[in-house]
Amino acid sequence: DGGITQSPKYLFRKEGQNVTLSCEQNLNHDAMYWYRQDPGQGLRLIYYSQIVNDFQKGDIAEGYSVSREKKESFPLTVTSAQKNPTAFYLCASSMSSGSVEQFFGPGTRLTVL
Amino acid sequence: QQQVKQSPQSLIVQKGGISIINCAYENTAFDYFPWYQQFPGKGPALLIAIRPDVSEKKEGRFTISFNKSAKQFSLHIMDSQPGDSATYFCAASTPADDYKLSFGAGTTVTVRA
User: Fold this and answer.
1) Distance from B66 to chain A by nearest Cα, in Å?
2) A69, A52 contact by CB (below 8 A)
3) Which of A66, A106, B64, B83 sits at 20 to 30 Å (Cα–Cα) from B45?
4) Chain A contact for B15, CB < 8 A?
5) Which of A102, A109, A111 to mutate against chain B (most B CBs within 10 Å)?
6) How far is Cα A26 from Cα B13, in angstroms, rounded to an integer?
7) DSSP assignment, residue B42?
8) Residue A41 confidence class, pLDDT cut points 50, 70, 90
């Protein structure tokens, strides 16, 4: 059963702690993306990766970091430098960077206390 | 600065009625316009998409109308059902920007039985 998995579904962290969100896909897609969703603001792109070992900043990359060591995995770290980290985080993938259709995972809701 | 402006923020429609959501854009390089449907706590799923070479695309009860000269496109949900209650996002992308999606802010549709 192909798809994108994100774990955990809910995550709670204390202020000042780094936290890593997992994203795995078995669709054999080259491109992967991380979005942040806040109420009333749509989805905003944090980072994206077109191929393994390469990634680019999106519109709101400050306070976040990523890695792409394997084609199927694209973890996102929310660092203590992110001023307002509480949000719903969505991972997506597409066949390649030139593919128009993106497929989304179920999301992780991060709450920083 | 949001590249795609979406309205209304929310709407309520009776079962069997028509829901209409509007989006406007400025970047004339956009050439792919998808609509995503998102249920609470889930990731968005592609609903329907259009290219600027056609003025209308219909899939079941969902229709996209596209006005290239006005730089506007809209989603019509015909015969709205309670199961259509969700948040809908319009988006746009261009090959000049690796087909990264620019999302509207979203419209929450509530269908009353």
Assistant:
1) 18
2) yes
3) A66
4) no
5) A102
6) 39
7) S
8) confident
